[in-house]
UniProtKB/TrEMBL annotation:
Native species: Mycolicibacterium iranicum
Cross-referenced PROSITE patterns: ATP_GRASP (PS50975)
Upper taxonomic lineage: Bacteria, Bacillati, Actinomycetota, Actinomycetes, Mycobacteriales
Record keywords: ATP-binding, Nucleotide-binding
Protein's name according to its UniProt entry: ATP-grasp domain-containing protein
GO MF terms held by the record: ATP binding; metal ion binding
Keyword ATP-binding: yes
Residue intervals of the ATP-grasp domain: 99-299
Top-level taxon of the source organism: Bacteria
Length: 312
């Protein structure tokens, strides 16, 4: 472990959770120690805690109530001194209409249609998934086999001021999703996520915090073709927002399907779970060291390297 030196600047780092999960969901339990081994000192705070505005660097990790307070949250991202991933990335990725941008860039995605408040919702034939375009943890997401209840749910979301996302239900979701984790723009590891949406017309089972649907996770070793889609999604997102892929401290690309026809379901750039507990201790230590090195790089980009002067 690196020891603190009085002549070296030690930035104040915050891992940002939310009031319901002020220290995250447990998957990031080792991050503070992983950062400390690099001489970086971090603490957990809810994102709306005033202390975050005094931090030199804020790392978004479990701010999972932002979807209900989006305007307030995006305003806060602009007031934090330095944020990773950066505020421009957060703003773009906070609304699933980013899927249209990725599809336009040639990334194979699950077909998606968006309907703002007041717009007539079109429900395709067959099973569909209806959810708010601003949402996390499957909150507000429902699966339907009948157009009537699907339209009713969509209109209820619209009445609450939400833009609605309608997708055909791809039965490959039943086999689970492959979550590809990237650190600093490079592929790191992957894990499997079991299906979260239950049978049509019913709601998922949520964690005690109420912020996300319970997930069943397991290790994964995806084929190259899936990683290729992940890289394409990351490259397209970085170009769209105007950042380098290496500037993305973390990213998670959720895919369905196998090597013959993988499809992007979601790209998570705000505060995705990274599946640390699906790795062996040695794998986890290596990956968390990579993340810590990415934090060091973010500090350097922000002028907060070890020999920076603390502002008064």
């Amino acid at each position: 472990m690196k020891l603190a030196r009085p002549d070296v600047f030690h930035p104040r780092i915050v891992l940002a959770g939310c009031r319901a999960l002020p220290a995250g969901d447990g998957d990031d339990a080792e991050l503070v120690d992983a950062l400390r081994t690099r001489g970086l000192h971090a603490r957990w705070l809810a994102w709306d805690d005033p202390g975050t505005l005094e931090a030199d660097l804020v790392i978004l990790r479990a701010a999972w109530d932002y979807t209900d307070r989006l305007d307030e949250f995006l305003d806060w991202t602009g007031r934090v001194r330095h944020l990773v991933n950066v505020a421009e990335v957060v703003a773009w990725n906070s609304d699933k209409r980013y899927l249209a941008d990725l599809a336009s860039a040639g990334v194979p995605t699950v077909p998606s249609a968006f309907f703002g408040p007041g717009e007539q919702v079109r429900i395709p034939d067959g099973e569909v998934v209806v959810k708010p375009s601003v949402g996390a943890g499957s909150v507000g997401a429902r699966r339907f086999s009948d157009a009537g209840p699907a339209r009713h749910h969509a209109e209820a979301l619209q009445a609450a001021g939400r833009t609605v996302l309608v997708q055909p239900y791809d039965r490959r979701v039943g086999a689970g999703e492959t979550a590809l984790v990237f650190l600093g723009g490079e592929q790191s590891h992957a894990f499997r996520k079991g299906p979260m949406l239950p049978s049509p017309g019913t709601e998922p089972v949520f964690d005690a915090s109420g912020t996300y649907a319970e997930e069943h996770l397991s290790p994964a070793d995806p084929d190259t073709e899936l990683w290729d889609v992940g890289h394409a999604a990351l490259d397209a997102a970085a170009r769209r927002v105007g950042v380098a892929t290496t500037d993305l401290l973390y990213a998670r690309v959720d895919l369905i399907g196998g090597r013959d026809d993988p499809r992007l379901l979601e790209l998570e750039l705000i505060e995705p779970s990274l599946g640390w507990r699906q790795l062996t201790p040695a794998e986890r230590a290596r990956a968390q060291r990579t993340l810590a090195l990415g934090v060091e790089a973010a500090l350097e980009r922000s002028g907060l390297g070890p020999f920076a002067q603390r502002r008064p």
